[in-house]
Amino acid sequence: MIDLAIIGGGPAGLSAGLYATRGGIKDVILYEKGMPGGQITGSSEIENYPGIKEIKSGIDFMEPWQEQCFRFGLKHTMSEVIRVEKHGDIFHIIHNPGKGEEIQEARSVIITTGGRPKKSNIKGEQEFWGKGVSTCATCDAFFYKKREVAVLGGGDTALEEAIYLTKFASKVHLIHRRDGFRAAPVTVQHAKSNEQINFLTPYVVTEICGDENGVNALMIKNLSTNKEEKLEVPVIFEFVGYEVNNQILQQKDGSFLCDVDSYGSVIVDLKMHTNVPGLFAAGDIRIDAPKQVVCAAGDGAQAALEAIAYLEQKH
To answer: Is the pTM value of this prediction over 0.90?
Structure first.
């Protein structure tokens, strides 16, 4: 029996481990099937984390986190978690698929498994991922000051990020396969009233083009005329959906261990509590997550402090 299981080794999970162990919890295991670090290790440049003045790659940025967070006794189990169940007051962490499933009992659990942006699977997307294909305007807008950029998508996020990008870019080409949008009417109106946004509807991107320096153009097709043309831009911001990694919360009967919203994001309060006592969620898996490293780290710290309080009450 351990006191706390943390599932997911990104910024939220590592911060939770640091605060939990330094705060006095003795038996804390971090479950991450690979080396800790999370999605951010795939970023080519990070320059907006407070206190870090150098521009670093995601891998270099996360490297000292591991040393610091394991300094106080956090243990790392390199094993994939299949499911988390609760039996009475005890959680069962079912892990190690394909090698004879194992069960680790835990008094409390913090879920920090995050999520991932959906990919469009456009030709060239994988080749130029992180080199002109982005899913984070907040992270990358600064690099394209006074240049034309493209945004792909038709939901609230796509339009909101297109509006945000106009603060940096000279023009934003918003590409959507339909004439109508899934976004809220007020958001659509706000976008259409912005003269810097050029609406390309109904269009699809057929190929992302570039060279060793990254993206330099998109091939786009008008679905009404089938005419194809080249759009010269150095970046495409894709907002075609987001998937949270909530599979471990799904029970054998198909239900979820705790409450989730219509998108599958875990519903928590401001202190990262789920509706299940002793179960906390932090980072990109939770509702209304801003999907920024600094916010995920704060979530992880908050969840750990609440886990400490929960365990003290149980004892």
So the answer is: no
